[in-house]
Amino acid sequence: MPKLTIDDLHLRYGTVEILKGIDAKFEEGSVVCLLGRSGSGKTTLLRSIAGLEEPYRGAIRIDGRPVYDAGSGTNLPPEKRDLGFVFQSYALWPHKTVFENVAYGLRLRGQSKAELQPKVQAALDGVGLGALAERYPSQLSGGQQQRVAIARALVYEPPVILLDEPLSNLDAKLREEARIWIRALIKRRGITAVFVTHDQAEALAIADQVVLLDGGRLVQSGTPEDLYERPETLFASEFMGTNNTLSVTLRERRAGRALVELGGQPLWGVDRSGADGGKAGSQTKGVIRIEAVRIVDGAGENRVPAEYETSIYLGNQFEHLFRCGDQTIRLVSDRRTGPGRHWLECPPERLWVF
Amino acid sequence: MSKPFRIAIILATTLMILGPVGLVIYQSFLSGPFFQPSSTFTLQAYEFVLFEEDDFRDAFVNSAIIATGMTAIAVPLGCIMAFLLVRTDLPGRRFIEPLVLVPMFVSSVVLAFGFVVALGPVGIVSVWVKGLVGTIPWYLYSKTALILIAGLTHVPHVFLYASSALRSLGSDVEEAARSSGAGPLRVALTVSLPMIMPSILYATVLVFFLGFELFGLPLVLGDPERILVLATYLYKLTNKLGTPSYDLMAVVVVAIIFVTLPLVYTQRKLLAAANRYVAVKGKASAQKPLAIGAWRWPAAALIVAWLGFTVVIPVTALVLRSFLSTWGEGVAIWPNLTLNHFRELMHYPNLVRGIVNTLLIASVGGALSVGFYALANLALHRWRSRWTSLMDYLVLVPRAMPGLIAGLAMFWVFLFTPFLQPLRQTLFSLWLAYTLVWLAYGMRLVSASLLQIGPELEEAGRVVGARPAQVSRDVTLPLIKAGLIGSWVLIFVTFIREYSTGVYLLSPGTEVIGSLLVSLWGTGAVDLVTALSTVNLALILVGLGLMYALGNKRHA
């Protein structure tokens, strides 16, 4: 049985529909990333799970037990849901010491000073802040505050922990370290974590399951590899990675493959258009990641001619820009290249036709 | 806070606001006092006041003239002073700035006494000037003098809003004007002041509205020439016809609220607009004062002259007079210095009670009021519901009620409600009236600190397992503690200064300095009035000292 189930969840602010029917299942012990642009509803979904927003239709179940169910009128207040929540701003209480911040949840659960002391200390040690218990939040750095926020959310051992962009206030270097230790910490405890982010690299790095949201709807849910290598929709394919999105003419669709025409050259690709795909002769979109395109020596199958335009140097590689008719094709390569006409290869299994 | 609790508090506040107002409106349609069973529904009182009563019409016209005149004086002067003190290198501006707000903290009736004692026909300054030039070149009891004094004493209200708006303006916009060739005056008139227009507009409506509410100044300065304004007309109505004419008073109250309520509503809209306007250009880091060169000295002289006339002269004269055994032409100051008036003060049990009551209502009562304002704020806090918007509009009602009116309405409520009757002659009735009059102000003080708390600090409390009441207790209240103490000090000073609310509630047991001053002035006991005013000023000074100490502590 999944740990957390979301059924047909709808939520609106006034007349604005924010969540338009979300269905998802999160397995026990997995790290789930809610990924999407700002305004996609990912934070709202997280806050609904915590009970900080009130949906108007659907259900949210933890271990099969409804914490929200519009059908039966169930809506547990946040304090009854027994979850951990890490806020984007950390939301540490400035008037309490680090120790008291972490201890508060245990105090509310009726634990005596003697009972909670070792647990708080263990939680703080777990995030590497055992020595700072008597400090006030304002005396900590951003990274330390974030660790206190995580300790505070974990100390009473909730079965599910929710994290709202916890890394967004850290600088780039710290962020990369933090995502490794957060994942390790969550995995070590074996709890289920739901993690909101708008950064696809972060989602791919930290998650067992990525849930991609757009405009209040679920676009695709699966492993990071599923989303990156087998996007089901144009939106998913364009959202992940860096892409060339090409306007192409559809020639033929056959057994999961599609033949399109780009700059007068035929190209085979994977047919992702589903049942409602266009007819032969219609204009459609082809997407290929920039790392999939290669410069090759001469004409051949799935190759197009293109004029060299410019390059940028990225340190570990070059990014080249080519022009093919009225379309631009970007690709990465570890070699410089020169002006003139080149042949570019788009491997058929990596060109997705929608 | 749980929902039923929130609704209960909102309902209690609603009752507290609408009860008195409702009673006044009800009374205005009756032929006699509301507690007499023989009273019947009629429009007589309206017909009489609106069409037959010349005094009412005069009072209304006077109020309109005075409000317009004082606005025309206070707004330009307040804006210029704000610009000079906030944006220029005026000498001594850091020292002058806090002094500008002083008239706001002194009760206007005390200031009015000060003007009489200093500039009246036998005032201390008048007599001195007469000795120099042989005649007194002004007449204090004219309408012009009243408008001038009202205008000058309301400069701080404009200054407060204009200066805070100017402070949030980046100095880059002014530097840009300077480098394109504009002089300081041009910068002020074409760049700085237009950019804070919404705040100025707000202050303009505020001063105009305060002009309609004016009570202390016209009571003291308008009386000798029988210049009546709405509030003093209402006050005189009590005695005018021999018997208290409840119906007529009610109509006058309704008429005043009819004028003030739209003004308050406009203000609210303007304030929202002003806040939006300021938020657009948030960057106000490192303001560089504008160098105004030789203009510094005349500018400083202007401000010092204003301060001298509005604060130093009346307050000094008042305090001096309270230490003089007698005063008149040909009386020397030094041989007549005495403490007798203060000793005499101690012989009147009601005056002593008044001082004690004032302290009680300001300290304990003020704390209870802040507690109430905090509770009412918490009831509305982070709650999106119709109840919240209802309260938003309801608090406008007490704003539109001058203290005199709220006191009268509260007095009637305590007469009317059987179970409240025994409390009428206790400080409770007075406290309730004070709390009601300053409801909007106090609510805003407390909500200002509540707004500083990020919602996620409270949400974090909920998620780790705290019920709403526990969040209020463990998170919200500790976080606004400093703000609540600050609010209490401001309310303390406000309650000490208050004089009009207690006028109708004055009875043995509910005396406060303010209402005693109003009634003593009627008897002509100048010695006692000046002594009691000096005590009042001393108490306010204590409050200001407290504010200063707290302010410094918060900066540390």
From TrEMBL, chain A:
Transmembrane segments: none annotated. CDD domains: ABC_Carb_Solutes_like. It holds the Pfam family ABC_tran. Keywords: ATP-binding, Cell membrane, Ion transport, Iron, Iron transport, Membrane, Nucleotide-binding, Transport. Signal peptide: none annotated. SMART domains: AAA. GO terms for cellular component: membrane. One of its GO terms (biological process) is quaternary ammonium group transport. GO terms for molecular function: ABC-type ferric iron transporter activity; ATP binding; ATP hydrolysis activity. Belongs to the ABC transporter superfamily. This is Lipase.
Automatic annotation (TrEMBL), chain B:
It comes from the Bacteria. One of its GO terms (cellular component) is plasma membrane. Keywords: Cell inner membrane, Cell membrane, Membrane, Transmembrane, Transmembrane helix, Transport. InterPro entries: MetI-like, MetI-like_sf. Residues 60-267, 355-550 form the ABC transmembrane type-1 domain. It is found in: Cell inner membrane; Cell membrane. The keyword Transport applies. PROSITE patterns: ABC_TM1 (PS50928). It is a multi-pass membrane protein. CDD domains: TM_PBP2 (cd06261). The chain crosses the membrane at residues 7-29, 64-86, 98-125, 145-166, 187-209, 246-265, 299-320, 355-380, 400-420, 475-496, 528-550. One of its GO terms (biological process) is transmembrane transport. The keyword Acetylation does not apply. Belongs to the binding-protein-dependent transport system permease family. This is Spermidine/putrescine ABC transporter permease. It comes from Methylobacterium variabile.
